[in-house]
Amino acid sequence: MSGHNHMKLSFASRSENEAFARIAVAAFVSQLDPTMEQLDEIKTVVSEAVTNAIIHGYNGSVEGIVTVEAEIDGDTVLISIGDQGKGIEDLELARQPLFTSRPELERSGMGFTIMENFMDEFDVVSSEKSGTSLRMKKRIESKKALFN
């Protein structure tokens, strides 16, 4: 499959919308015919990013907006997830495995590590009081290509 396609979602920073975002992106990416492992990795990454926006960006407030964009360019998917929340105070520290700013919520501190490992490219930009934006890229080698 070649070509270019894109989608954009914006929704309230409510935890119940995490599943909506995960399923919507998975359905969009499915047109590339990914393997189940690739699809599971993408769903996990979206889930982690949206959950981080809700819990950390907006401190669980339902007043915020989370934006999810996905773009297909040939065999590559680019996923951007952002919020306009409080931002990350120390981005370098936040990217360290096992670091969490919300230990009282029993968070594992592995979100960024998981996202980095499941995607081919991963970038995060954050400004205090302006929010956080994640950009991730993954090449999808379709199941059809594996059997030809």
From TrEMBL:
Ranges for domain Histidine kinase/HSP90-like ATPase: 37-142
EC number: 2.7.11.1
SUPFAM superfamilies per UniProt: ATPase domain of HSP90 chaperone/DNA topoisomerase II/histidine kinase
InterPro entries documented for this protein: Anti-sigma-factor_SerPK, Anti-sigma_F, HATPase_C_sf, HATPase_dom
PANTHER family named in the record: ANTI-SIGMA-F FACTOR RSBW, ANTI-SIGMA-F FACTOR RSBW-RELATED
Gene3D superfamilies membership: Histidine kinase-like ATPase, C-terminal domain (3.30.565.10)
The encoding gene: spoIIAB
Name used for this protein in its record: Anti-sigma F factor
Reactions performed catalytically: L-seryl-[protein] + ATP = O-phospho-L-seryl-[protein] + ADP + H(+); L-threonyl-[protein] + ATP = O-phospho-L-threonyl-[protein] + ADP + H(+)
Protein family according to the UniProt entry: Belongs to the anti-sigma-factor family.
KW Protein biosynthesis (keyword) present: no
Organism: Cohnella lupini
GO annotation, biological process: asexual sporulation; negative regulation of sporulation resulting in formation of a cellular spore; sporulation resulting in formation of a cellular spore
Cross-referenced SMART domains: HATPase_c
Pfam families: HATPase_c_2
